[in-house]
Amino acid sequence: MIRNRQGRPQRRGILSSKYPIPGTRLILLWAGMILFLFSPVAWAESQLDLVLDVKSKFSDGCLSIQNMVELAQRRNIQGLVVADHERVSLEYGLPPLERIFKKKESGPSVLENGASTYLAEIRQVNEAFPQVLVIPGVESAPYYYWTGSPFDGDLVAHNWDKHLLVVGLNASAEYEQLPTLNSNASWAYYDRFLWPFAAYLAGGVVCLVFFLRKKRPRLSLVGMGLFFLFAFNAHPLRSSPFDAYHGDAGTAPYQETIDYATGRGALTFWNHLESPTANGDKTAGSMKLSTPVHPEDLLLTEGYTGFQVMDDAPVPAAEPGKEWDQLLLQYVDGQRKHPVWGYGANDYHCEDQDKHKLGAVRTVVSVEKNDIQSVLDALRSGRMYAVTQPAEDSHLALDRFAVADGVTEKFAEAGSGLVTTDFPEVSLEVRSTGGKETTATVSIIRSGRVVKRESVALPYKANWRDLEVDLEKPVFYRVAVESPGGGRLLSNPVFVKFQSATSEENQVASVPQKEKGGSPGVTEPRPPVVSEPQEPIAPVAKPSSMQSAPTAPSQPSMTQPQIKEPAAPKVEPPVMAPPSPAGTSTLLVRLKSLAIRKGPGGKFDEVMTAQRDEPLEVVRTTT
Question: Domain residues for 197?
Fold first, then answer.
């Protein structure tokens, strides 16, 4: 079911440029123009329930793509991202001819059955069932490496279950050329392996010449066979620049796949980094497999779109302060070019297999149009949240999550950013789609730390202003919701950047006002940290090189103020001249992040400015 969101204003943010500023419109009344300029503009967006990372009969799933779409319709799912295995192939060869004398275990996959057939079937299903969008993708296992020996019985393939979800490749050739071990021949890396191949080939040609000339024909024939055999083993048209026989290559093979996919406009997500069904020890035929949990790979790679933050079980990397928040902090600090988004992966193969049900984990995206390109744009820009659905017809829903500037009324939602001069205000609307969840625990996470948590009744609406945030550095906010029935929800972040107020109106309005004939009720400031005080108005002692002001006969002569050098850590206040003539008063004001200006009057000339948290003593004479 598509749930329309009403009253959504124009997004304005520092980190997203996808949202146009409304242009000038024809108006009939001046009051109507003012109302338009200063009120929100509605966005015609809707929410779609997607299920990502589902497998069909093209790999190790139990249902055809059409059967999954029919099941999705019955469960109010508007989109499926089909992610069959790209290639299922495990090989071990005996060096030095490991590509010739080898044992291979393989299974059904997209490339085994044909990428063009895979894409054609998805197109046919989209035409036959327009109510459910089917988006093609693959789950890629780019790399593994061997340890041990088959003769000692300790041969193990490591990292076989390290998977990347690739979504949005359009042509069958793009799937066929993914940089995966044991895959199709490719010209992409031939220059890296050309010289060994050429050397073996040249040796074979020399032996062939000797054989034809009948110079030691037996030896020449043996040499020719060996050289050509090694040349074939070292052929340069390889599907990956890595091999499985020289130890762990780290994250380089996965970065290669990420760069390949993103370079062709596709999305890439790290999958089940900590899922017990994808990690640990397994077997593939007679071969042993071992894949440890690997959340650290999130920090060691870059350029990918996001990762799986929601599974049937909680994902530790998405907990406050863990890898996801560390990645987002790197982004707001300028250490990463792009933020990392979170999505929910169903990892569906067969109904009730490993307790998986189609739609048990969903990703809800905000789209402007109900088409594939809009869904891909939403996934790419983080306009989504991940949620579990423990009940068949009900799950938690986040109808609104926004961070606003209370002064300008601008705000940003998930996947975008906001520039503000004020303490940000977080707006939330949470409900249950089927009414099964009646209470929930809502947590607001700011830059990796839970800053507000409360148990609420559903439906829930709230506005919360963060008065404890440090206005000196950028932050991000995200939301986590849990229900007693097992429902969990994770939003994507909103980024907030603060800037100092520069308008004269804001600066003057923040200065404490005085009543005529009285002194303001300010507390005495601590000793100043400035090196010299402001010069008082007449009668004033001139600087040390000047004589004191002339004195009237009826008044004693003025003495020069004794200004002591400030000492660390305590600074002595200056010794002032005798009291000012009757009718004057002295005002000491300690300000914080404001400009001090002269008055009274309609125009205020600036006297001194101070940055935030910088102590300042101002000595000022008023009449």
Answer: 190-233
320 CB-contact burial (10 Å; exposed 0-12 / middle 13-18 / buried 19+)? middle
Q: Where does a domain end: 172, 205, 233?
A: 233
Using CA atoms, how far apart are residues 210 and 50, in angstroms rounded to an integer? 67
Among 202, 233, 264, where does a domain finish?
Answer: 233
**Overall domain count for the chain:** 2
CA distance 428 to 464: 9
Q: Is residue 417 part of a domain?
A: no
Could you report the per-residue pLDDT of 559-570, keeping only the tens digit for each?
444 544 444 444
| pLDDT-wise least confident of 325-329, 334-338, 537-541 | 537-541
Q: Distance between CA 240 and CA 221 in Å, rounded?
A: 33
Cβ(251)–Cβ(301) below 8 Å? yes
Q: H helices of 264-417, where?
A: 297-300, 323-332, 372-381
Q: How far is CA 52 from the centre of its chain?
A: 18
Instruction: Report d(CA 343, CA 550) in Å as an integer.
Output: 79
Please give the helix or strand (H or E) that residue 252 lies within, else none.
Answer: helix 252-262
State the residue for tokens 């986590």. Answer: 480
In whole angstroms, what is the distance from residue 541 CA to residue 532 CA? 14
Q: What global pTM score does this model have?
A: 0.73
- CA separation for the pair 431, 227 (Å, rounded): 71
CB 113 within 8 Å of CB 91: no
pLDDT-derived band at 375 (thresholds 50, 70, 90) equals very high
